[in-house]
Protein: Glutamate-1-semialdehyde 2,1-aminomutase
Organism: Alcanivorax hongdengensis A-11-3
Amino acid sequence: MPRKHSEQLFRQAQTHIPGGVNSPVRAFKSVGGSPVFFHTARGAYLHDEDGNRYIDYVGSWGPMILGHNHPQVIEAVQAAVNEGMSFGAPTAVEVEMADKVCELLPSMDMVRMVNSGTEATMSAIRLARGYTGRNKIIKFEGCYHGHVDSLLVKAGSGAMGIPGSPGVPEAVTADTLVLDYNNAATVAEAFAQHGPEIAAVIVEPVAGNMNCVPPNASFLQALRELCDQHGAVLIFDEVMTGFRVALGGAQGLYDITPDLTTLGKIIGGGMPVGAFGGKKAIMEHLAPLGPVYQAGTLSGNPVAMAAGLATLNLISEAGFHEALTEKTTRLLDGLTEAAHAEGVAFTTAQAGGMFGLFFTDQSRVSHFADVMACDSERFNRFFHAMLDQGIYLAPSAFEAGFVSAAHSDEDIDTTIAAARKAFAKV
Ligand code: PMP
């Protein structure tokens, strides 16, 4: 597929945009080559600047669960724009949004809207610390919660966090403990050692930033019990999984009630939106009711709320997630069969409409180390072989993929057929 215009734009972009992109993974650094510049998106398809069409399994990294530019979402956005782009004052649509979110996620008594997933997790951590009067937090290796200083950490010796980026002071990560995902025993040890100092455990209930790693049967339940025993706040980061793995999120799917939940992606229907919320007793500590400060000029923006609400209403239709899950299973079954037919060691993971592809001979991938042991070079070759056939996968072996309601059976079949050719090459 010729991508001359994309390549030209990428060269031009690098003059005034660091790395030519406004978010690092877009630059194709891990898969190599030049990123695709897109022009138009409709349903399951993306169209690039050279007029090529792709079946999209990124969905803007999750939000586009209905497919791109769903007519009812576009209509809602246009209607909202006509009334005013931003008020910086309360609007009815924010009340409607809060009611809807708390209805879909019964663990949430109250919710505050923000503008990104990063803001949601940053605020949830501050609130948990303010509420408990404690400083330490537990996070898991391979889980990403946005580029919040205290969460941008790597596991150091003794699991104490060391900065994951220059610019993050050691003092800021000193209170972050980084533990192994899907390993409840290490969490129990950390609580035994530091219990009275631990404000919160933050976890992606299905890890979607180290490829896609669903939780082991008892992992989330163990986190719930340990937080209860030690008076710590359990935060489910459902920025990716919320409204994606099930209408009620991962907390609904696995039937575990967190104290706080962070949301993003689908809740904005493609507009920049995040949210955090949970138990009333905790949320009441937030300004203006309580002393924990948090604010936003554009928070609850009416255009963004309109896109999000229209999306939430459409995905609330009976059977929506069942159909999405079934379609995703069909895709993964087809890919696995194609890989094995070509003798490629390959396995997949799935939670609802979210999936992972692993080039490994292990049958199940549960830990960060398992993900790191996969053949990422082989993934990179597979990625490019798919891209050249008009299939757009996430440009990294460490990202989850997403199916939308707009993907047709024919799109899935086309993808599987392309994969068979790609597996033969890699
Ligand atoms: N939490 C999770 C689980 C995420 O996947 C992401 C983004 N991929 C974030 C937080 C950060 O969200 P944002 O990029 O909107 O800041």
